[in-house]
Amino acid sequence: MNEAFGPDATSACAITCYRTPRHHHIILWTVLAVGLLAVAWSVLA
Predict the structure, then answer these.
(1) 25 contacts: CB under 8 Å, gap ≥ 6
(2) Domain regions of the chain by residue span
(3) Distance of CA 10 to the CA centre of its chain
(4) E strand map for the chain
(5) Sign of CA dihedral 3, 8, 10, 12
């Protein structure tokens, strides 16, 4: 899952968000936030 980070992943996420019902956006943002926290943690650790 971590290999998904990058420009391609950003584009895919944008497309997915546009095609995803609004009630799913909370899940997507939560996953994104957790992923960013994991990256920040590994960088700062």
Answers:
(1) 17
(2) 2-44
(3) 8
(4) none
(5) negative
